[in-house]
């Protein structure tokens, strides 16, 4: 096996030096060492991609669609994305100049951040939130500024946003919003988004709105998009991973005003060249004949949410009411003294249930654990029994 030449040691991109591997992935690997563990660690649906979507991809392969696609996506896919987003959020994007496809929502966020940010810029990141946000911002040379939302029901309020913008000064280029939220499952109220939009306009900053879970809203809650209130300064990111159980297909998309999309598309093109053809064919099918598919999935997730929430509350866990996505962000019982990492490690070792420590999601997450209810009903029922036994014995 070759060893790197001595004179090349240390010749790397030093922006990576401070970035560690994903705590979430590392912890998932940690709990996997225990045979028989039930893992509620990752946001991975146990459901299968709808059959008609799979058949569309197979037909595309059999038709020998094996050449480069347009870099921003096939016209027919961008057209159905535009129509889909208008139906969901009420905002119309030109398929030609204001829509681009990406390799999942994570690559979309990479393209957006790389297109917007310069060394020394700042990005406000309401926490707790999916930890990759901070790492993606740091890779650009900009600085992520965590904004703890735990005192406000895990929602960034307009008042808090304005307070932080005043404190941080003109270096703030953007604020990132994840709605519905990973890890909390909280959905932003309409009035809050209206207030955020007013503050954004006052302070001249972009918003990056990650709405990957928008199709998974439960009960009386309703999803409103920040794009509806500040379309001229909001960059919209989403995809089909969660709505259509297509995590492995890696199909995301970006929408925004044409002027900034020029830069975003340029960066996106450098990152991916183009998205796989049969994946695009599947996307066209999902957004044409599969608009009702998320409803079936949502009913399953909502049933699981009700079961897990009621069971955990009986065991002494407190939580913000999860209204969307497929996570419960629960505060561990007081007798465990807020040590979420120790709690999660002991739960995995002694009771064979894997959950993710809340502190991995940034400020405001300490003392909480995230549990995904995208696992099977059987696993969730057994996991709740094991958690109950663990809590009662400690």
UniProtKB/TrEMBL annotation:
Highest taxon of the lineage: Bacteria
EC code(s) of this entry: 2.6.1.-
Keyword ATP-binding found: no
Uppermost EC category: transferase
Keywords annotated in UniProt: Aminotransferase, Pyridoxal phosphate, Transferase
Gene Ontology MF terms: pyridoxal phosphate binding; transaminase activity
PROSITE patterns: AA_TRANSFER_CLASS_1
Cofactor(s) the record lists: pyridoxal 5'-phosphate
GO BP annotations, alphabetical order: amino acid metabolic process
Domain Aminotransferase class I/classII large: 36-387
InterPro entries the record matches: Aminotransferase_I/II_large (IPR004839), AspAT/PAT-like (IPR050596), NHTrfase_class1_PyrdxlP-BS (IPR004838), PyrdxlP-dep_Trfase (IPR015424), PyrdxlP-dep_Trfase_major (IPR015421), PyrdxlP-dep_Trfase_small (IPR015422)
UniProt-listed Pfam families: Aminotran_1_2
Family statement drawn from the similarity comment of this UniProt entry: Belongs to the class-I pyridoxal-phosphate-dependent aminotransferase family.
Entry-linked PANTHER family: AMINOTRANSFERASE (PTHR46383:SF4), ASPARTATE AMINOTRANSFERASE (PTHR46383)
Protein name as it appears in the record: Aminotransferase
Protein source organism: Lactobacillus porci
């Amino acid at each position: 096996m070759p060893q790197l030449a001595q004179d090349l040691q240390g010749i790397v991109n030093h922006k990576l030096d401070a970035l560690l591997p994903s705590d979430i992935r590392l912890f998932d690997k940690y709990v996997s060492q225990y045979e028989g563990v039930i893992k509620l660690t990752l946001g991975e649906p146990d459901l299968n991609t709808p059959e008609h979507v799979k058949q569309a991809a197979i037909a595309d392969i059999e038709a020998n669609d094996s050449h480069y696609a347009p870099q921003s996506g096939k016209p027919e896919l961008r057209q159905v994305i535009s129509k889909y987003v208008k139906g969901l959020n009420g905002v119309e994007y030109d398929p030609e100049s204001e829509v681009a496809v990406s390799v999942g929502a994570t690559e979309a966020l990479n393209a957006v951040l790389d297109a917007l940010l310069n060394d020394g810029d700042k990005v406000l990141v309401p926490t707790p939130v999916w930890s990759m946000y901070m790492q993606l911002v740091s890779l650009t040379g900009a600085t992520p500024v965590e904004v703890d939302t735990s005192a406000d029901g895990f929602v960034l309020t307009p008042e808090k946003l304005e307070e932080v913008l005043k404190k941080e000064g003109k270096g703030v280029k953007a604020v990132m919003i994840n709605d519905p939220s990973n890890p909390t499952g909280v959905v932003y109220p309409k009035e809050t988004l209206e207030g955020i939009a007013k503050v954004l306009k006052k302070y001249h900053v972009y918003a990056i709105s990650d709405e990957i879970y928008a199709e998974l809203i439960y009960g009386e809650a309703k999803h409103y998009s920040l794009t509806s209130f500040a379309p001229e300064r909001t960059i919209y990111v989403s995809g089909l991973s969660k709505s259509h159980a297509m995590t492995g297909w890696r199909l995301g998309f970006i929408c925004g005003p044409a002027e900034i999309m020029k830069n975003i598309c340029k960066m996106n093109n450098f990152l991916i060249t183009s998205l796989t053809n049969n994946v695009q064919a599947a996307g066209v099918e999902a957004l044409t004949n599969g608009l009702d598919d998320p409803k079936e999935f949502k009913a399953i997730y909502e049933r699981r949410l009700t079961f897990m929430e009621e069971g955990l509350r009986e065991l002494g866990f407190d939580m913000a009411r999860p209204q969307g996505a497929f996570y419960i962000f629960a505060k561990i019982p007081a007798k465990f003294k807020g040590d979420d990492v120790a709690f999660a490690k002991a739960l995995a070792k002694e009771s064979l249930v894997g959950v993710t420590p809340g502190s991995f999601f940034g400020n405001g997450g300490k003392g909480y654990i995230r549990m995904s209810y995208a696992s099977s009903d059987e696993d969730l029922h057994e996991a709740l029994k094991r958690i109950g036994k663990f809590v009662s014995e400690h």
